[in-house]
Amino acid sequence: MATASVNKPRIRAGERNGGSLPARQPGRFGPYGGRYVPETLMAALEELEREYEKANRDKKFQQRLDELLRTYAGRPTPLTFARRLTEKLGGAKIYLKREDLLHTGAHKINNCLGQALLVERMGKRRVIAETGAGQHGVATATVCALFGFDCVVYMGSEDMRRQELNVFRMRLLGAEVRAVDSGSRTLKDAINEAMRDWVTHVRTTHYLLGSVLGAHPYPTMVRDFHRVIGREARAQMMKAAKKLPAAVIACVGGGSNAIGIFYEFIKDKNVQLIGVEAGGRSDALGDHAARFHGGSPGVLQGTYSYVLQDAAGQIANTHSVSAGLDYPSIGPEHAALRDSGRAEYVSASDADALAATARLARTEGIIPALESAHAVAEVMKRAPKMKKSDAIVVNISGRGDKDIGILRENLKLE
Amino acid sequence: MPLTFYRKPALIAYVTCGDPDLVTTREIVLAAIEAGADAIELGVPFSDPVADGPVIQRASERALKNGTTLAQVLTLAAEIRQHAQSTGLVIFSYLNPIVRMGTEKFCAVARHAGVDGVLVTDLPVEESHDYLRAMRRNDLAPIFLAAPTSPDSRLKRIAEASQGFIYAVSRTGVTGARQQLAADTEKLVRRLRRMTKLPIAVGFGLSNAEQAAEVGKFADAVVVGSAIVERIEQNCAHEATAVAEFVRELSAVRGESI
Hints:
A: alpha/beta; Rossmann fold; four-stranded parallel beta sheet; B: 11 helices; 9 strands
């Protein structure tokens, strides 16, 4: 494949491995990942990588993070057996991993607390972030309030419109929300603007990236901060059902909640891992955000992964009813999991997600975020075809309060 | 050797190709050469220009609205080469359009077009192994950015991987005209000098003849980008004349060719 020629993992000087297999490079997932940023940012990424590696070996850091997750964020989150949904669908037993119950309403807080501790170690005082649905922005604003950092959140003006409640929450928490009017005025454009801020203020500012995207070390580091989801879910499943689930299902925008819940199950070869992308309103380029169904390998915003793009390498616009999935690239580790066949990626349309939201609300009394509803939609398709003795774990990565406006516009309730 | 600079400081003019359209870009480039530009950076428009400020972002949007592609930019380079044999031609691009075309194919076509060097904004040295091989095979000069934030260990790698010249970024930040030259620009150039005999060009934020003259005291070349693109934006229908006039202004502060 000619397109991968600049990106092939290569054997680093001094490493010997028989000259056949490429060495495993940090930040590479198969051929994907890497660090594709302007030179100005390289030193900051190297510093972050060093600091993260040090923190990883530091028991005190881990203890402080665990304590914050427990006493501030509300971990562990429960695994809820969805009895009525299971009965209605008539197949596999459905378990919900309740990240929606975390402080700030989504899994995003796991990563924000971890990075905030790193910011403190690095002695920086200013934090910037991008946000799509606003969940990561709210989580960032929250930890900045908690740690006393200055906080600027970049958000596409289209997303600000559809997630106005979260915009207000961020401002209430003391963050400055800057509207981004370029491109499609959504998540991708917010990341561009955050990167421009970072390249300008890199000496004093930490970029608190909110997904398993961007240049190394972000995809690895953000994954590690979310691994707790899968660790808990696996143990809870073993306790509840005395066996592993047949399938683990999660929605995939950048892919942080999905990699977080998948990671602990990768070694369990009998557990199917299923990621659900945003199918949007049609299969046409520009109408969806299903990178594995129409995308091809490319470099966007620091990483080599699947990207929705045109024949000349320009990044395509995307659409999804859920702002958090509305992004043209996907975390590089997902690209590797997909290529190896270890995980499978499907998509759910806007309409499927909206229907799934109402279904979960009415059968279980849980209103999922529209992002998470994409995973629920896949459960609804898959569970009836599975054996009653099988179990599915689905990650309810966030709650739907932020989506009430969109839900009201789109759901005709009698 | 079109990337050999005979005047100090040499003047490198950046344009976003396809803004307002490719025919006009050709006129602008030829006029800039005529007016004294020693090398031209042919900017390839990209949908997500994270290293660029508002001026080049807007230019990129206009160029993409016209459907400008990397392939067309390379065709344009070949046309310019026919008219200007001794001017340095550098392709200035983000990585993805090159990856999409295929690095090998890109380098082969660029060489055939008469391009001298390539600068890829978001390709740092450590990710450039296969790219460097393709560049070398096609006799193209890989030009890398050096930043004020780069520690000496990185500058060394950058110096080793670069050919043609090294592009020193005058400040942390995105492209765009500024009133003042950053204080650490000269320091960065001095640090680079210890590591390379290659010419050093300074860019990002240079917008007038005074700044060019100041940079000329310690660097070999100045890159003027956003200030040129701004003139293109503001002089609809007579872009080439306006750019030529500006390039002559910038040129006037330099000494005779050496």
